Amino acid sequence: MNTKVTKLPKSEIEIEGELASEIFESYFTKALSKLGANLEIDGFRKGKAPENILISNIPEIKILEEMAEMALGEHYPKIIEGEDLDVITRPDIAITKLARNNPLGFKIRTTIMPEVILTDYKIIAKQILADVKDAEKELEITEEEIEKTVMDIRKSRAQKTNMKDTTGKEGEEAPSTIQEKAGDEVLLAEIKPEDLPELNDEFVQSMGPFENVKDFKEKLKENLKLEKTNLAREKKRLKIVEKIIKEAQIDTPEILIDLELDKILYRMESDITQMGMKFEDYLTHLKKTRENLKTEFRGDAEKKAKLGLVLNKIAQQEKIIADAEEVEKEVNHILEHYKEADPERARIHAQNILTNEKIFQFLESQ
């Protein structure tokens, strides 16, 4: 078989070639048999008509098309392997020559995993880590931050109490962790000082396993510090990967961008549905369509696609893989909380999450 591979933009390729006539012709009997298996012909049992009868009852073009499908179905994987192509989409096949006792001509268009060329990401990480300001390293929680969070919690509880007084039903309680309670978004401006619950042992004990106000504030401080630490870490990681992506050479395939767009819209639709709204009504309210949103979020989707490619490349070059025991533990955790989750997809998700975490830890160690 003669083939020629041409590289196209966006990591697409075109494979043009011919399958030798004798090889193509070898599929004639198999194609005829397959087409005749369910053919009903007077005087013969189904699938038992002789070859000459089948030939006279089946149009030649159908036989040729079946031959081509069989031939390329068997030889396409061999082409991919022989050309050492990392294909990521289904092939779009066009037949260019189709006749008995002639070579089978074809053109195949598909997308391959793009080549990712990185600058020295270890140097980039080292430079950004060195540039972290002393103020960003200082993660202590001030008394002012604690008091502000306490006030927000008291106002939030006052609002829930007010909802109960007004409707006869208490507002739905948030999960009993300080961090989640402190993060609730409420209309705080409408709460009057006299409506605020008193900050005493009884009040804090009603929110969780706190001994007294002092214990509550200590644990609140720990949670706020953890939150600030996580936020600083994510900010630092974002700076590193944005710089690596900016200096990388990647011809990002459209299919990967489209996949990220689908993920973004799926998460958005799920969030809207959980709020009790129909996504289509939400779009109508915004006076937008799904295509409008895809246009708006395309830049974000492209960044996410590039991020995935960059992290995958670093993992390959540094031979970073997730620990098998940690993956198994995470999979069990996912399946325990999401009974309907597909085990294989849960495993892929766990491997990605844990591998990416190890990659970031590697970059932070520079």
SSE blueprint:
Elements: E1 2-7, E2 12-19, H1 21-25, H2 28-36, H3 51-57, H4 60-82, E3 92-97, E4 104-111, E5 116-117, H5 121-131, H6 134-137, H7 143-167, H8 178-183, H9 201-205, H10 213-247, E6 249-250, H11 254-274, H12 279-286, H13 290-318, H14 324-337, H15 343-364
Antiparallel strand pairs: 1-2, 2-4, 3-4, 5-6
Essential attributes:
6 strands, alpha+beta, Alpha-Beta Plaits, 366 residues, 9% strand, elongated, 15 helices
Distance between the termini: 50 Å
Average pLDDT over all residues: 89
Q: What are the low-pLDDT stretches, counting only 5+ consecutive residues below 50?
A: 169-186
Percent of residues in helices: 55-70%
Strands in their spatial order, largest beta sheet: 1-2-4-3
Number of β-strand runs = 6
User: In angstroms, what is the radius of gyration?
Assistant: 31 Å
Gross morphology: elongated
| Number of discrete helical segments | 15
